[in-house]
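In response to reviewer comment 3 from the previous cycle, which asked for concrete evidence that the modeling workflow produces usable outputs, we include below a single protein chain processed end to end. The sequence was submitted unchanged, and the resulting structure tokens are shown without manual editing.
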Amino acid sequence: MHAGVADSRMWDPLIPWLQGHEPVSYDLRGFGQTDDADEPWHHVDDLLGLIGEQPAVLIGASMGGRVALEASLLRPDLVRGLVLLAPGLTDWEWSAESEAYGAEEERLLAAGDLDGATALNVRFWVVGAGREPDVVPRDVIALVTAMQRRAFAVQLALDFEEEPRVTDLVARIFEIRAPTLVAVGEHDIPEMRAMARWTADTIPGAQYTVIPGSAHLPSLEAPERTGRQVARFLKAIA
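The workflow returned the following structure tokens.
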């Protein structure tokens, strides 16, 4: 499950590292090519419908990590393992800087400035903390810009937003027993780094790693480093 600033294309660079497995990636509703929704929905319900009764290892980034965590709490019998890249937690306390970013995004979207809102998100999430834009590969900037711009266009056409089914992840995350790998980019924003560290410390037996040379989307910025970690984890829990 992809991050909220992306769609399923963010996983393409990891596919070579998943040989021997059957990876399935898809656009969550409101992203990419999945633009149909005529009533409120929950991403985790869509995920569980996709899995059926076949247990799987769930790989989720940011918002997608939140969806994977929800599934682990709602149907632990279906989750063989978790790979969480900068997982999002719905009930985390955000900094004043992040609150200001959110307010500016809302202002731009309310004004119909999708390009401005997209550029804001690219600076905040893709450039990340303590870096200048010119250090990020241009193809990564271009791809995330296209994915985020598309998501805004789709979401503004809908009359409602997705809501999580599990709203108390922080209180319940210790219940998860699936083997878990938590990773975060070294240049991600402070809250995401803190959430990743806390998640790894709280899920029993979870592994934790920092991906050098990346901000919020290590699968795009550092696919070899990320892929190596994921492949090693999958081999260990096979």
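The longest strand covers residues 79-85. We consider this sufficient to address the reviewer's concern, and the full set will be provided in the supplementary archive.
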